[in-house]
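Re: the request from the purification team.
They wanted to know what the chain is likely to look like in 3D before they choose a buffer screen. I agreed to run a prediction and write the result into the notebook, where they can find it.
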Amino acid sequence: MRKATPLPRELKATDVIEAIQARHQEDPQLATHPAPEDLMAFAAWALDHRDALPRSEAQADVLDAIRLIRMAQHQLDRLMLRALLTAKADGIKTPRLSEATGIHSRQGTHDRIKALTREVAAARLAVPADAVEDVAPTPDVALTHLKAVAHKLLEEWEDLTTNEDADEWAEGIELTMRSSEFTDLTAASLSVQLRCAIDQIVELAGTLGVPPARTPEAQAALEAARTL
C-alpha cells in the first residue's frame, strides 16, 4: 500500500471552504452549510450538495471534501496523541486505558503513540510519515542528554517565538517527559516532538521577521535541540 502524501503546508481549511462556498454562490442551499469550524460537517455538506453544480465543479467539491476530511483526521490524531501522552504521564495503567482505547497491551499503546507521533509530525513537517522515522534518536545520543535538552528548551520556552501550534508541541514534550515508563519508543517520540517544535518556532520566526529566540539562553537551548 502506498503511503499517503501530506497536504501542502500552505493549504488551509479556510482556503478549501472558501473554494466550496464560491462554487455554490448560485445555490439556494448555500446558507444551510454548517459552521466552517466543523470540518467533517462541512465536508458532508459539500458531498450532499454537489448535485447542484456542473460535473467539473461537483468533482472539485468531492476533492475538497476529501481534503477537509484529511484535515479533520489530522486534528483527531493530534488530540488522540495528546490524550494518550496525558494518560501515560498521569500513570493510568493498561487495564483501565484499554477500556477507552480498545488497545489491550502496553506495547500496543506504545505502538499507537509512535504511529500517531509520526503521522502528526509528518503533517507538521510536510513529509511522508515513513520519513519521520529518520529523526529518531541515534544510539550515540544518551537518553539523559535528550531529556536534559528537552528540559532546557521548556525552561526557556517563554523567550522563544511561539504560537498555539508550537505550544501544543511543548505540551506534548512536557507530557512525554513526565511519563513513568521512558522506553526507546518514548525517546523516539520525544525526539520527533522536539524536531517539530523547533521547526514550528523557526518557521514562525521567519514569517514574522523576528529572531526565533529573544535571549542568549533561549538561543542556546534552541541550538542544542537542533543538533540532536
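For the purification team: The chain has a mean pLDDT of 87.
Please add any questions underneath this entry.
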